[in-house]
Amino acid sequence: MKTSFPRRTVLAMAAILPLAGGLKVTSAHATETLMTQQEKQVVDLLKSIETGAAEPVGVINPEKYIQHNLGAADGLKGFGELLAALPKGSAKVNTLRVFQDGDFVFAHSEYEFFGPKIGFDIFRFENGKIVEHWDNLQQTAGPNPSGNTMIDGPTQAKDLAGTETNKKLVSTFVDDILVNGRMEKLAGYFDGDNYIQHNPEIANGLSGLGAALKAMAQAGVTMKYDTVHKVLGKGNFVLTVSEGAFAGKPTSFYDLFRVENGKIAEHWDTIEAIPAKADWKNQNGKF
């Protein structure tokens, strides 16, 4: 599918995390909310990148930590080396959204990490320990033409009983529209022009998307989704992880959707260029 975002080059980064239960915690952008233990530990681990706290890292399995950030070597050693390369006191982490889907926890955060970035992190747990990590980072940009930033908007999952239904809706949308370009089906996934967009280049609504597509086509820039690797969700929030190309270069696409009344109501994303294999610091692949 052809769409319209000028290309953004993103540094790779690593992060890791932890476990499950039920805690009340207060975030900077949300009122007191019930989190699972693993969600809270993810928030704590990401925050430790800023604070340097050692305790949260204990939830990582030291014998098995598979790293998919291609800018970091495998295992705990690679994670430590990446953090050691940061100028002292420069890192900042503010996690806005965190959701658990089975053995996976995914987080949406704003970073100061070799410059301002917005990122998604995914962690896989096994026997109560983190054993695998994926992420996607993009330089902070915006606000977009509608005044929305890359991270504002609702943060708490609702409609928990509808998780699987919402995942199926988003999965079908991505397959129809982003992978196969069945544009005749586009309007059916939305409530008219009531669609909130957080991509820094695109305005709200289908009208904003249409204008962006037109501008991109005129510029001769293409974006193609080829393979969807993951669909994770909690309630009305669904994250998809896809592989494709942007402006002809291999690219990783992370898209977070909020569903309301059976329609897609809101969208956040990050787009990251995949480096040449010769530059990878591990051989696990991006996905």
Automatic annotation (TrEMBL):
Pfam families: SnoaL_2. Keywords: Signal. SUPFAM superfamilies: NTF2-like. Residues 173-267 form the SnoaL-like domain. It comes from the Bacteria. Residues 1-30 form the signal peptide. InterPro entries: Cyclase_SnoaL-like (IPR009959), NTF2-like_dom_sf (IPR032710), SnoaL-like (IPR037401). This is SnoaL-like domain-containing protein. It comes from Rhizobium hidalgonense.
